[in-house]
Design brief:
Chain lengths: ~325, ~325
Amino acid sequence: MNEHTIAPADVTRVTCIGAGVIGGGWIAHFLARGYHVTAWDPASDTESKLHRLIEAAWPALTELGLAEGASRENLTIAPTLEEAVSSAQFVQESAPETLELKQDLLARIDAATPADVVVSSSTSGYGMTEMQAHCPTPQRLVVGHPFNPPYLIPLVEVVGGEKTEHRAVRWASEFFEIAGKSVITMDREVPGFIANRLQEAIWREALHMVANGEATPAQIDTSITEGPGLRWPLLGPCLTFHLAGGEGGMAHMLDHFGPSLKSPWTRLEAPELTDDLRDRMVQGCEEAADGRSIADLVSDRDRAIIDVMRAIDGVRRGDS
Amino acid sequence: MNEHTIAPADVTRVTCIGAGVIGGGWIAHFLARGYHVTAWDPASDTESKLHRLIEAAWPALTELGLAEGASRENLTIAPTLEEAVSSAQFVQESAPETLELKQDLLARIDAATPADVVVSSSTSGYGMTEMQAHCPTPQRLVVGHPFNPPYLIPLVEVVGGEKTEHRAVRWASEFFEIAGKSVITMDREVPGFIANRLQEAIWREALHMVANGEATPAQIDTSITEGPGLRWPLLGPCLTFHLAGGEGGMAHMLDHFGPSLKSPWTRLEAPELTDDLRDRMVQGCEEAADGRSIADLVSDRDRAIIDVMRAIDGVRRGDS
């Protein structure tokens, strides 16, 4: 990317490389947001699979509200990777999670994409530093990690590699926001980024419990869907525990329940609860609460739990 | 408990010992389900605090649907613990989380409660084996661990201690189900039970990330509320990964992505993925899926994500 880079708000054409579940989900999302999408995938049945995926997603996307000019007709399948990216204004790569494959593919994309265009990878497992190793212009490559299905789940985690320019990261974050996603911009690479580290911690604890005969998969799922899972769509783990501290919030929670961090409630060892960590959590919760009092948060939480339970009951009963 | 124990469906009177946030939440729940509740708490302002809590919860409980005969008038504050339990048909203890306090309180409750009545503790941190140490008739003591707020979150984890009779555990599970809760009956004591072990794994990973400057509390919360948190009210972690395996489900997921368990995506070490663990996960997911195909689950998931996002948007906008 350079001084001629298009402004994120001016992008009208997006290229998606890879059209499986994730790539196809991105394509459905970009079409619904009104972009012209060019797709390429080496599989021979790409066109038919992609049409099925988009057909299946379109009613939901229509219900959520299509952008002006959004149409399934705005999709072009390119015959080669090079043609797909040659006039791209933004490229999203969603190939299988194999490092060598990603390295080679990103090098090919990088070589064929105009120099002022940002290239983003959907990888969930690799850092951009290792993936951009063979790229001629690695400074415009970023990770833009979505969640399945990308046309519904808003989260995208954006982070660069060692050779990525900061402005490419900033550009990608701004573009994803404009394209309707909720963006977390990370300052540095961490394996698994943020959400997958938290998910993976739950997943490994769950596997340990099953391996030890302490719980069945059905019990594990019920413990989430009938319990904390009902709070998490509104309040993440930090604000959830901010409320657990009562009127004293996170400060009270850490000062009084800090010792329980040493309890064997998971196989994951706790960090040392230093004064610095305590203060970061307290200030971070203030920031996340964004002016909402504990009473406001409790009242919103209760409202959200009721509405989420009703929404889920409706789905379980098969209401349309 | 003995052969004269009342049937769970015949219970009309419940005693709650401790009337703080959790005890008060239980009282609101039992009143809404039509029970007569007797409460005792050593604090001098119990009555006024309890009335405020019940007043605040009642509109939500009314909206969710009160049981026949449910009334806030069906609450009696007893002057002593002994009077509170003397004619109880079921006792729920929700005292502060201090082992010595719980041991002494449960011994007092046990001594004063009719022998054929089940006594349950709301503890989130202790096992019944250590709590029942000083009880004269420990065989009728169980853990019945709720989630905050107990009048909204359905989950209750039920487990006995070493001296608890199996029929007391069975009785409590049946009673909680009748009283409108979603019950997980555990075969054996595990520190933190199930949901809190999973929550605690997320929490510790989150604390590590903040301590290392890898993420802020606000980013951690956003990564859940805009990401996997939108799926968890419908599908727990096991069925979520069952879908991540595509048409092959959990079997495909473990056989193909098993090696990623070794990735440093969390500080929690993974268990060895033995054939036995693999088979338990695959069979457990079949059981949890309960006849629903992958396509059914995907379609329900998408419906649920949309409805949950709408519910949360409504709460954020302040719709009533």
